[in-house]
Structure formats: structure tokens, C-alpha cells
Amino acid sequence: MAKGTVDLSKTVLELCEEHEAFPETMKTLGFDQITKPGMLQSMGRIMTIPKGCRAKGKDLEDVKEQLRDMGYTVSDSTKEVLS
Length: 83
Description:
InterPro entries: DUF1858 (IPR015077), ScdA-like_N_sf (IPR038062). Pfam families: DUF1858. The chain starts with a strand and ends with a helix. It has one domain: Orthogonal Bundle (SP0561-like). Strands 1-2 form a two-stranded parallel sheet. It has helices at about 10-20, 20-30, 40, 50-55, 60-70, 80; strands spanning about 5, 70-75. It is mostly helical.
């Protein structure tokens, strides 16, 4: 069952506002800092998933695949920007 679309150009805060379970999804993907009190409202406002992957040394393609495995559709309109 599709959980919705994750647009990689949106901030983590925007994605969490769109998808109720997204903070837990981020934690499962290894971005556990985002679930700490205040982090979503501060870092989440500027952090996108591609920026978070760079900061944490994670492979963006692996994270995208994990999101798809969790039932999300991934919209990667940032691809031209990241190349």
C-alpha cells in the first residue's frame, strides 16, 4: 500500500507535516536525531533528505530504495541540482 510521495526537494519538516509517520521513517533510516525534541522544528526546516545524506555520509540512492521498500513513491526533482 502506497504511503504517499516523498519529494526530495522538500524539507524534512514539510515531509513530516505531509506524512504523519515520517519522523519514525526517518529514524528507521538512521536519521534518529530528527526525533529529538526541537530538532524537527529547527534543523527540519532547512534539512532535505539529500542534505541529510551528505551530512551523515549515507548513499542517497540507498535511502531512496529504502523509502520505496517502505511504500513511498520518491520524487527526485533535485537530481539535476545534485549532479
